[in-house]
Amino acid sequence: MGSTEKDIEAAPGRPVPSALALPASFKWGISTAAYQIEGAAAEDGRGPSIWDLYGRQKGRIANGDTGDVACDHYHRYREDVALMRRLGAQVYRFSVAWPRVLPQGRGRTNSLGLDFYDRLIDELLRNGIEPWLCLYHWDLPQALDDLGGWQNRDIALWFADYAALVARRYGDRVRHFATFNEPNVCTLFGYGMGWNAPGIADRRSFLQAAHHVNLAHGEAVRTLRATAPGALLGAIYNRQKCVPVSAAPQDAVAAGILDACWNRLYADPQCLADYPPELIDGLQEFVQAGDMARIAQPIDWFGLNHYCPIYARADQNPLGFAWADAPRDGPLTGVGWRIDPAAFRDELITAYRRYKLPIYVTENGYGANETLDASGGVNDVGRISYLHAYTKALEEAVATGTDVQGYYLWSLLDNFEWGSGYANRFGIVYVDYATQRRVPKASFEWFAELIRAQQGRHA
Ligand code: IFM
Questions:
Q1: What is the spatial distance between Cα 149 and Cα 142, in angstroms, rounded to a whole number?
Q2: Could you identify the atom of ligand 1 that is nearest to the CA of residue 138?
Q3: Residue 137 CA: which ligand 1 atom is closest?
Q4: What is the mean pLDDT of residues 106-135?
Q5: pTM, whole model, 2 decimals?
């Protein structure tokens, strides 16, 4: 098959973007998340989120960074939409900050916060860009965390009420809604491993939170169907190949458990009404009669985020695996993630066969620690090679009959990268955080050319 690691190594300089064999209806776009770019954390009545408090705990986030200001997108959204337009993006997938519209997570709404997303959506539509709205990209209102957060079963109904508010307000202009972005990361890292807010490391808490996230997804889909009947509903899953770090049989078992936690714990109950057998023992304490039917509400599309294979080793800890770094025996991104476009192709094919839903790639991108060069730009050839190889891999998946309908790159801007703070840059636009100046990188022009080539193919 075509694109492999070898292509990346062999690519002399900048690969030329050329049109891919994809359907005319295929959409190109950009993904972001509220807490990572908005800033204005204490402005216009926004309530605190778990990330605001977590970031203030010593040692949690690299360099003590916080999302207080981030990319100041709350004030600069017009400039950012203009960049998307210049790029040729057809879709912009963003998230609503729950604590901005419901400062306590439920009850009193914040009209200034609601107004912000009105302005953003209207600006997108004025620029011919379709808004895709994700309800949850990890910024849980702190007031709900004080009540147990995702460990409190009532959160399924609080989340559904929040979904109804958002759908009532924006459903006249937004056609695509997603419930959760990467539920695996916010629960496994947030409650199982203690790497993300709220910083809990406990298997039972993780599985409890996971089940409540699944229930919340189902309740929100039901509510969205009733409130915005014409909308197309989906969820965004992070799928990565799980690889044992060695040939030892115990590491293979560990990789199987990681695969259950990472790839199946959400998509299986939500799309197939089933939990992975590896995790049933820990989940059954939380599953009540009727829950699986509540969770498995039909959805219209499958959002798939993919970056790289991930690695597991055997460990005596209660989770049954330990996270391992990518071995150094192959190509890595600037932040040490394995480059393996064939794994992306295979994940697309596997997800389509398993869940039988049209797929949108809702995130894919390349992280690096970059600075401006002497000419004042960023010649990010590593990112360009990565995007070239990964979009070719997507084309290969489509050639096998896999229904992939869009590709939304992560991300427009360098932004707040959770535990790594601002050190890891994923944008195709460089952000000078001291001045908030945006500098499109070479990959921005490359991606714009790819989109133009694609549109020319179907003109
Ligand atoms: O920045 C994150 C995003 O919030 C979720 N998916 C992975 C990205 C890169 O780490």
A1: 8
A2: 4
A3: 4
A4: 99
A5: 0.96
